[in-house]
Amino acid sequence: MPTDRLPADRTRLRRAGIGLEAITLGWNVVGVVLLAYLAYRSGSVALLGFGLDSLIEIGASAVVIWELTGASEERQRVALRLIGIAFLLLALYLLVQAAIALLSGHRAEPTAGGIWWTAATAVAMFALAAGKHRIGRRLGNPVLITEGKVTLVDGILATAVLVGILLNALLGWWWADPLAGLVIVFYAVREAIHALRG
């Protein structure tokens, strides 16, 4: 039997997975509060959408912690459905908000706080996503692997929001802010379908 299948090793891996989810949860709780403030100050659709993504990530992390503390096939099915629904909600919200901003010609005011937070979040989420994928594969846990994709989406979205804010700040491209919110819609829908199919 491979060492990563031994009960003691699986317990260690499960704890590591829960630890990664706890870090993600804490990061996003801080992020929701900070992004609400930054979005209010700047009028940024992208930052507002990113704040919603942080809320969805909080829910997804809570679902995975719940699943890892009592793994069963039924829990995995429920957890995957909940993560799939979270992806769909994120895609729908970003689509609507970006469309409204583009059609209305809404111009956000870039802030240094938005730039620094999205840059730091991108780095943190890419690192957390890699860890979740690695541990999820070793555990053979599709829920942790799928939630790692939610975290990856969070990192991609942070990068897109950062690019949008920078283009707006440096070149005055006001449409880059809402366009950044659209970057993730296709990927989020694809991952939602994958998660909902189990």
Keywords:
198 residues; mainly alpha; Alpha-lytic protease prodomain-like
Write structural notes for this entry.
This protein has one domain: Alpha-lytic protease prodomain-like (Up-down Bundle), CATH 1.20.1510. It is elongated, with a radius of gyration of 17 Å. It is built from seven helices and no strands. Helix 1 (7-42) runs antiparallel to helix 4 and helix 2 runs antiparallel to helix 3 (73-104). It has helices at residues 7-42, 45-68, 73-104, 112-139, 142-171, 176-182, 185-196. With 198 residues, the protein is mainly α. The two termini are 27 Å apart. The longest helix has 36 residues, at 7-42.
User: What is the arithmetic mean of pLDDT?
Assistant: 82
CATH-scheme architecture: Up-down Bundle
**End-to-end distance:** 27 Å
Task: Give the strand tally.
Answer: 0
Structural class: mainly alpha
Count of structural domains: 1
Q: What is the percentage of strand-forming residues?
A: under 5%
The helix-strand sequence is HHHHHHH
Oligomer kind: single chain
List the helices and strands and how they pair.
Layout: H1 7-42, H2 45-68, H3 73-104, H4 112-139, H5 142-171, H6 176-182, H7 185-196
Summarize the model shown.
The protein has a single domain, classed as Alpha-lytic protease prodomain-like (Up-down Bundle). The chain is built from 7 helices and no strands. It has helices at about 5-40, 45-70, 75-105, 110-140, 140-170, 175-180, 185-195.
